[in-house]
Design a protein that fits this description.
Blueprint (H helix, E strand, L loop, with lengths): L13 E6 L5 E5 L4 E4 L2 E3 L5 E4 L7 H4 L4 E2 L12 E5 L3 H10 L5 E6 L8 H12 L3 E5 L1 E8 L2 E8 L5 E5 L2 E4 L3 E4 L15 E2 L12 E3 L4 E2 L7 H19 L14 H7 L1 H10 L1
Parallel strand pairs: 4-16, 6-13, 7-8, 7-13, 8-9, 15-17
Antiparallel strand pairs: 1-2, 2-3, 5-14, 10-11, 11-12
Helix pairs in contact: 2-3
């Protein structure tokens, strides 16, 4: 895409979307970058993948600051009693990584079989034998503590008993889940967390707003990359028609179009070969 010199803005999400008078759109990102656009194409996949959040009795009331869904500074866990929730690779990997600096780690998983790499599970079992890690099966029933922090979790064990697990910091690694995020608040028609579109130009319920890829839905939809390319091509033609209804539309082929050859730099290479 470099020959077409697109503007690229990374490390930010669209936070605000507004339909302006005259059919234009105001788009603002999480970093405050603002755009005035004549058209918008949504290509958000299944949505923004967010960590699966802990839900437990008492959690909302505590507004705990010691609940973590990722590790940004491992030093903050040094000398602490950690409770790690999860049974996948992330939970096991961070258990192994932090075991060397934590005071103790309690690894909580809903069953006694893990989804992580067998080698990681074996290393964790060795740490358990050394007393550095405690394995505990069960589900979280209630969060206990004081305003601002969790001091313990009440677990419902596989034996249908209730036990209390204490810790200074809680790390939750339950995987990621797709979330439409702010898109759900844009007054678009939404159907089962997807955006219905027409199959002529892949326009949504808002004129000038198009959706391509896994984010959209229509009869016969196939979630394939190949289908996404097809949808994007027709959406591009739809955008042009929306911005300039009277304009004629031409197909440009990369094999024969001098315009495309010039934009892609093929023209120069052909001249070099001819000169050679």
């Amino acid at each position: 895409i470099r020959p077409f010199e697109p503007g690229v803005h990374l490390g930010q999400e669209v936070a605000e979307f507004e339909v302006l008078d005259g059919g234009r759109f105001r788009v603002v990102t999480s970093k405050g970058t603002e755009f005035d656009a004549g058209s918008v194409i949504i290509a958000a996949g299944l949505g923004a993948f967010q960590p699966r959040r802990l839900r437990a009795k008492g959690l909302d009331d505590l507004k705990a600051a010691n609940v973590h869904y990722k590790v940004t500074d491992r030093k903050q866990f040094s000398g602490k009693r950690l409770i790690v929730l999860g049974g996948g690779d992330s939970a096991l990997d961070w258990t192994l990584d932090l075991a060397g600096i934590a005071d103790h780690i309690t690894l909580v998983h809903r069953r006694n079989a893990y989804r992580a790499q067998p080698a990681s599970v074996e290393k964790m079992k060795q740490l358990a034998e050394q007393g550095k890690v405690t394995e505990q099966q069960g589900t979280v029933g209630e969060a206990l503590g004081v305003p601002g922090r969790i001091d313990a979790l009440e677990l419902n064990t596989l034996e249908r008993e209730k036990i209390r697990v204490e810790g200074d910091e809680l790390l939750v690694f339950w995987g990621l889940a797709p979330d439409l995020g702010p898109i759900a608040d844009w007054s678009l028609e939404i159907e089962k967390k997807q955006i219905p579109v027409d199959t002529e130009k892949f326009q949504t319920s808002i004129p000038g707003v198009f959706a391509v890829g896994d984010i959209n839905t229509y009869p016969g939809k196939k979630k394939l990359i190949l289908s996404g390319f097809h949808e994007a091509a027709l959406a591009a033609f739809g955008v042009q028609k929306h911005l300039d209804p009277e304009a004629r539309q031409f197909l440009q082929y990369t094999t024969t179009s001098p315009i495309m050859h010039k934009r892609l730099g093929v023209e120069k290479e052909e001249k070099k070969e001819t000169a050679g």
